[in-house]
Amino acid sequence: MTKNDGKVYLQGHITVPLDRLDEVRQALPTHIALTRAEEGCIAFEVSEDDAHPGRFNVSEVFSNQAAFDAHQDRTRNSDWFRITQGISREYSVTSD
Known about the structure:
The protein is of the alpha+beta class. The chain has 3 helices and 4 strands. It has helices at residues 21-36, 65-76, 79-84; strands at 8-15, 41-48, 55-62, 88-95. The longest helix is centred in the first third of the chain and has 16 residues, at 21-36. The chain starts with 7 loop residues before the first strand and ends with a strand.
């Protein structure tokens, strides 16, 4: 197995300004559905953090680096990217 064959994990959160919450909430189900349908997506969870208004916790697992990269490419050309542009993201990405 090469280094790029291991699973890729993303953990973190986005912090949505309160005036943009409705638009993000409306776009989220489509973003989740499209991501979960991607080849190589093992798990994809986004949930609002009850303790921090506007924070959405994100957890992703992809089968390998190529699948993760394909997800990033698709997302950059999506409505989700447009709607969440400029929103603060704090993530860590690791792999096995």
